[in-house]
Predict the 3D structure of the following.
Amino acid sequence: MPDCLFCKIVRKEIPAEIVFEDDGVIVFIDIKPVNHGHLLVVPKEHSDDFSSASDEAVQAVALTARHMGKALMEALGAPAFNLGVNNGRAAGQLVDHLHLHVIPRFEGDGHAHWHGTPYAEGEMAEVAQKLRLVLG
Amino acid sequence: MPDCLFCKIVRKEIPAEIVFEDDGVIVFIDIKPVNHGHLLVVPKEHSDDFSSASDEAVQAVALTARHMGKALMEALGAPAFNLGVNNGRAAGQLVDHLHLHVIPRFEGDGHAHWHGTPYAEGEMAEVAQKLRLVLG
């Protein structure tokens, strides 16, 4: 995709702090990190988002994310990490090329998770039934 | 693992609203959802976390997450979804059996992403260098 920001990084037309690269993926530092070391794992093959990506891209991104998470723990002494994918604008996706966030985490770094709320009586079974109908 | 909560769900020893199952994974409704329809994708094979999971488990969980994200969009009319993995206590992991969150998202549902802050001069290159040393 000629005008895609991440395709341009893949083609080395614009600079990025690349830390890993193989045939399928490229990994570089997010320029606006949640914590220092926050990485983006990007398949070289363009897809707009995770839901439209090929099996190969999905598998490569996931295996690379595991590799990068372990590297962040070793290189930065992070005891933990988060993986995240935002699929679509309403989920916070800003660049339309699949990317997976790998964020090193530290005790007391202050990043709180979204609050979960238990279902009211009957609601959970109703949602599950809607999903089962679609999933066959 | 006899005492693992999610292994017990895999073995059907404790109830869950299961919406999908195949040879490698089971998917059920999170009982404390961020949004209704929030799912957990769990490999049947036990691993404590994402970083210690097998290639097969990592790949199966990622492909199933794509399948579930699309199902949430179709079944619930969600325009978007987030995927998330918490690897380790400091990243918010509460159950020590690998699980991937798939969260349907809706315009204006109010779940804000963690704030990113640009690096100061020289800091990004320094972090990248530490990672490259570990990654070879």
Observations:
- The mean pLDDT of chain A is 97.
- The first helix of chain A runs from residue 5 to 10.
